[in-house]
Design goal:
alpha+beta; Catalase HpII,  Chain A, domain 1; about 300 residues; ten-stranded antiparallel β-sheet
Length: about 300
């Protein structure tokens, strides 16, 4: 990897912070969200594949943030869009953050392309809206972005944050207790299945729906589904959609309550524990680590 990660991440962060909806008081992206608490309980199916104890046995408390991917904390939930979930597991071995979105792939594979994407999506001064022609030109120059773009164009309004599947996008490695190493990706799959709304009621709010849900039945729970890769699968490219692979249900996340004030908090997909390793060739993963830190620093700095 030849990219200057720190410098490129700073440029990306600056570009995101220049958006009209950006504010130092909230995240540069995924600004609108709600937080819940629950527990993750493993099935034990990964016992021979990883030395990460929390993925094998016991039960771990979880802090879970659901979000809209944009920079506007006031965006309507009735607008079709991708959604995100970030799960923080504080284990005896360290913190494990599992950060996922409802898209099947990331939009770009490197920092230079990310900056091109932000330029293509920037508002046209004449209209105040992005120029579709610039976005089309970007996709033509970056066909690897097509799966994510198509998913965004076909997004629907979920009936609940708890009725949507979320994908981790990046490849990680399970490191076994006896030294084996296997690539994997993961998804959070709703236990009650996926459900969408064709005509959301006026004022529909996903945070309110989740609070009502957690106050009584139905439950909110997700299975952590691990997709087991092969040595031939692309591991450093989050735009690449894997072919169908064997899956293992590694555990279940049950949400118990809406959380109180848990800020300041950051969910960093490079936070893993022994037994789980990153792909050092995944440039986007490294950029996210630095950019998230910069965003966290801005929104937690004392105001003048």
């Amino acid at each position: 990897m030849t990219t200057d990660i720190d410098a490129t991440a700073a440029r990306i962060h600056d570009a995101l912070r220049s958006a009209p909806s950006s504010s130092p008081s909230h995240r540069a992206l995924h600004a609108k969200g709600t937080v819940a608490e629950g527990r993750f309980t493993p099935t034990g199916e990964l016992a021979d594949m990883t030395s990460a104890a929390h993925l094998v046995d016991g039960s771990t408390p979880a802090v879970v943030r659901f979000s809209h991917p944009g920079a506007d904390p006031g965006v309507s939930d009735a607008v079709p869009s991708a959604r995100g979930v970030a799960v923080k597991l504080r284990t005896a071995q360290g913190t494990h953050d599992l950060v996922a979105v409802s898209s099947p792939a990331f939009l770009v594979r490197d920092g230079a392309s990310f900056l091109e994407l932000l330029a293509a999506r920037s508002p046209d001064p004449a209209t105040g809206a992005p120029d579709p022609g610039r976005m089309l030109a970007f996709v033509e120059a970056h066909p690897e972005s097509l799966p994510a773009v198509q998913a965004a164009m076909g997004a629907r309004v979920p009936a609940s944050y708890a009725s949507l599947s979320y994908n981790g996008l990046h490849t990680f490695f399970l490191v076994g207790p006896y030294g084996g190493r296997r690539p994997f990706r993961y998804s959070w799959v709703p236990v009650g299945g996926e459900h969408f709304l064709d005509a959301p009621a006026e004022g529909f709010d996903l945070a309110t729906e989740l609070a009502d849900r957690l106050a009584g039945p139905p439950e909110a729970a997700f299975d952590l589904v691990v997709h087991l890769g092969t040595p031939d699968d692309p591991t450093g490219d989050p735009t690449a959609v894997w072919p169908e692979r064997p899956v293992v249900v590694a555990g279940r996340l049950r949400l118990d309550r809406v959380a109180g004030d848990v800020e300041p908090i950051v969910f960093d997909p490079t936070n893993v524990t022994p037994g789980v390793e990153l792909d050092p060739d995944d440039e986007i993963l490294q950029l996210r680590r630095v950019a998230y830190g910069l965003s966290y620093g801005v929104r937690t700095s004392p105001s003048d």
